[in-house]
Design a protein that fits this description.
alpha/beta; seven-stranded mixed sheet; six-stranded parallel sheet; 11 helices
């Protein structure tokens, strides 16, 4: 098969590699599409390698057709599926533990299916399992509201009845995010989020930015609030009043999806299929595809994310 590997200088290299060998309990998938995530950008830059048991090139979520599956598996040869990977999705074939493979929600395309597993697993893991869920009356805060995770998190929070505060960096993104129901949408380049946070203390925050504002806004969380860190795109350092943490019993939680065990990921995906996949078929939840590129144009596709141009997901497709 061919795969979009990374050479010794971390340049993309579309080359032949050995076909994956399906192990017991795994599904072999012919890949139709692979969605791009921020982790792929980090891996391309040499700072976020795949776990040891996965191919050492990019790709955390794919869609495609099942070629082989274990006996009595919930998917079978010919099924159209999407899958969560530890790495290696930028390739014509992948093998995946069966529990990390799901049917594409009814009514969604292959391209849309490829955009679901990583971001929705991230959102469900952190907002439902780590934070303990959201309820009517909760206030949810997340920056980068037009990112793939941002759009998913906003929809999940509104589905649960929470108020949403988020930031964006363009008028077009603001319009789209408001249509999803976000209550406060601020342009971080020209507007100060701090007064909004002070007036609407969050109960739950999902933070992919970090930086100086993290510590300043954390102090305004409600008693018992949950602040979940998943990345530090805005900087690794901040200043926190630790007395505020223990007096208000705030939970500061660090979380990643990629390092979870296949069993943990399977549990999250099973919950997604049961609880959220029907909402996609009913159009109560959507996945927005910002752009689609053929796999050989991966550099241009990554550029869209690097320049933060996207509203939602950028997807790579594989020809015959």
């Amino acid at each position: 098969m061919y795969a979009m590997t990374l050479d010794q200088n971390l340049n993309f290299d579309w080359k032949q590699v050995p076909d994956p060998i399906r192990k017991e309990g795994e599904v072999l998938i012919k890949v139709h599409a692979a969605a791009i995530n921020r982790a792929d950008i980090m891996q391309k830059d040499g700072c976020y390698a795949s776990p040891p048991d996965w191919p050492q090139w990019c790709g955390l979520e794919v869609s495609g057709e099942v070629l082989e599956a274990p006996e009595n598996c919930h998917v079978k040869a010919g099924d159209k599926v999407c899958a969560l990977l530890g790495g290696g999705g930028y390739s014509e074939l992948v093998t995946v533990p069966a529990g990390m493979v799901l049917p594409i929600p009814e009514g969604l395309s292959m391209v849309e299916g490829a955009s679901l597993p990583e971001v929705w697993s991230t959102v469900y893991l952190n907002l439902q399992l780590e934070a303990g869920g959201l309820n009517p009356g909760d206030v949810f805060y997340m920056q980068a509201g037009a990112s793939g995770v941002g759009l998913a998190a906003i929809q999940f929070a509104k589905l649960k009845g929470a108020k949403v505060i988020t930031t964006i960096d363009s008028p077009d993104k603001a319009v789209f995010v408001k249509k999803l129901g976000a209550d406060f949408v601020l342009d971080y380049r020209t507007e100060d989020i701090r007064p909004v946070i002070a007036a609407n203390p969050p109960t739950v925050a999902l933070d992919c930015i970090g930086g100086k504002l993290m510590g300043e806004n954390l102090q305004n969380m409600v008693f018992g609030g949950r602040w979940i860190m998943i990345a530090t795109m805005g900087g690794r350092m901040t200043e926190i009043d630790l007395e505020n943490i223990w007096r208000k019993r705030i939970k500061l939680i660090g979380s990643t999806l990629r390092s979870r065990t296949p069993e943990e990921k399977t549990a999250v995906l099973q919950a997604l299929q049961k609880e959220l996949w029907p909402e996609f078929s009913r159009k109560r939840l959507i996945t927005n595809i910002h752009a689609v590129f053929p796999i050989r144009e991966v550099e241009a596709a990554h550029g869209v994310l690097r320049r933060a141009e996207n509203i939602g997901k950028v997807v790579l497709t594989f020809g015959e």
